[in-house]
Amino acid sequence: MAAAQAGGPQLDRRFIWRGREIAWTAFGSGPPLVFCHGTPWSSWLWAPYARALSTEFTVHLWDMPGYGASSKAPEHDVDLGTQGLAFAALLDHWALDSPHVVAHDYGGAVSLRAHLLHGRPYASLCLVDVVALRPWGSPYFSLVAEHADTFGRLPAPVHLGALEAYVAGASHRGLRPEETAALVDPWRDTAGQAAFYRQIAQADERFTAELEPLLGEITVPTHVVWGEEDTWIPADRADRLAAALGGTSVTLVPDAGHLIQLDAPVALATELHRWLTRVEAAR
After folding, report:
1. Is 199 in contact with 187 (CB distance < 8 Å)?
2. Which intervals hold domain AB hydrolase-1 (predicted)?
């Protein structure tokens, strides 16, 4: 299991679910707030935002099974269907009463599945550059899906070079060396390398296809935030998603790519605080 990422929170608690260890932590005071990360990321991306909001909310951070500090056993599925079930079970374990949820990338589909398919209630939902509508996935995804075993056996330096290049493509402004190091750290060792290609191999649009007809049924306050320069999931999806949700609000963040947390931290932090305080005050 990977150690905690440099500069990130210590996920000092474990929830055992179907043989998996899900690493998590919680801190702060106030209404519950849960952050959901995406792929190939971890809770490290959300850590600064969680710390900033912990003066007003009790924040929960977790790494999906197969990611970050959570277990990466090769026999365990890590597809979006599994992750949605895992999140629903984790919410039950935490015994939260309708938390606010902020989700990025895959975390969007995971949180939507837990809400729409598994009946977990939310106080609000903020969807940040999320996987929710087809099509998604890149040519690289397709190539890896067809040859996951081969990619899993790449020499470590070749794997690391490909991984760093892939991660760098998610940022608009460019990553600092310490950011790149933190993002790739969970995938560097032998278990991490295999897990990295396994999660791509199990990506399947059917898990979002199941959600698309249900998006209009969401009644909790929902907000969409997107980086205008996102090349992984282009910004036109923001308006498409908002329309599918019944016309919810949208904020486009300039000079930000898919890694909006790193590209535009001040703008994103301001937007999240504005949104969360507004919906909490309206409860």
Report:
1. no
2. 31-265
Please name the amino acid found at residue 203: A
Q: pTM of the entire structure?
A: 0.96
Q: Put the strands of the sheet holding 222-227 in their side by side order.
A: 13-17, 20-28, 58-62, 32-36, 100-105, 124-130, 222-227, 249-253
Residue 215 tokens read as 């998006």
Q: How far apart are CA 232 and CA 73, in angstroms?
A: 28
Cα angle vertex 264, ends 163, 272, to 5°? 110
CA 122 to chain centre: 17
Element spanning 148, H or E: helix 148-152
SS3 184: helix
How many C-beta atoms lie closer than 10 Å to residue 278's C-beta?
12
d(CA 49, CA 238): 22
Q: Which residue is it, tokens 């794997």?
A: 159
**74: CB partners within 8 A, 6+ apart:** 194, 195, 198
CA dist 206 → 81, 113, 201, 210 (Å): 9, 12, 14, 6
Neighbour tally for 243: CB within 10 Å: 13
Domains of the chain: 13-281 (3.40.50.1820)
* Angle of CA points 196, 201, 204, to nearest 5°: 125
Q: In whole angstroms, give the CA distance from residue 61 to residue 11.
A: 8
Confidence tier at 7 by pLDDT (50, 70, 90): low
Q: Each residue of 36-54: pLDDT tens digit?
A: 999 999 999 999 999 999 9
The DSSP secondary-structure symbol of 4 reads: P
